[in-house]
Specification:
382 residues, binds fe (ii) ion, globular, 6-stranded parallel sheet, Rossmann fold, two-stranded antiparallel sheet, alpha/beta, Dehydroquinate synthase-like, alpha domain
Amino acid sequence: MHYYMPTTVVMGDHCIFEHRSRLKELGNKVLIVTGRNSAHANGSYADLVQALNANGQTHCCYDQVMSNPTVDCVFAAAELAREEHCDGVIAIGGGSPIDAAKVAAALAVQPVERSALFSSVFSRALPMAAVPTTAGTGAEVTPNGVITNDAAQTKTSVASPALFPRLAFLDARYMQGLPRRITINTAIDALSHAIEGMLSVRSSPVSDALARASIRAIADCFTALEEETPGHPIREKLLWASNLAGMVIANTGTIAIHAMGYMLTYFRRIDHGRANGLLLGRYLQRVHAQDTRRIQDILAALGIPDLETFTETLDRLLGIEETGEAFDAAELASYADRASQAKNITNSVIPPSRDALLAVFRESLFSPSRNSMPKPPQSLSP
Ligand SMILES: [Fe+2]
């Protein structure tokens, strides 16, 4: 068994200022990496600058990270870090700024050609801290930066132990203004991480324990997510759960669900968490045909009696937007072809065949609640 988690996590309201002395290990000058608006609107940017000022640290800012960050974006942030002689990097945001910051922190000290980004092995990076402002990716405790890979027409993970943030500051106040839709999509992403971790060839007793706790906490929030805009206690629970799920995938990686979800995100711009959620229920139904024990373990953590009820819950939470008519057969076949080549496939305890992936795409996007025919659960093997 192998389990590794080098990130120091602090949590609670005002935790950045309360634990500001920890930021000193990032050096005299830091690069803040964030998106265009949200860090200013939710108060996290102001809190961070106040803490840095109190420490006597200076900063500069790269605030151009977009959803699904591009290669250009991470190279621009790395260039700024070098030009400004930054000693460390602090990411504020959802998964996109945190992922971009990790790769930029590596590129700042280990420049590579753009064409070699996804084949490079990064052995070092500027020291980094992360302030998540959504509760979903868990990127604050993972060694991966997921970047849009136009050459391969998907999103690709740049992974190295050097990319683990040293510090993570979890303050649920920054999530209070998030719209319900983003809250649900990100919560489902975290749920998918925890579940995929339990279905990974690299799962362990430690990662399974973290995954069960994360799944239980997120499932406890389902009713609140269905009925209202969550208040602070629910926000904090989701943040804690997504952090645990991040610790899971830091050790197990993700599996076929993420490989398939990336197709819907890259080609259809469907939000990452939503894409996973659309596929999760039907994928698990197929796993169930071959591995009942693991699925029962997941259902027990969910507190839900069967996969049909779980799938209906996901459909209710996500709502119906995509319909079967929007996806033609050739498109789904091409998604299955591409997803079947992803590294995440061999990370699955039951590696799905290309035809099984196609069936999951079809069943998920042509589900009974989305206008079409139910299919009996079948296995993932041919
Ligand atoms: Fe994810």
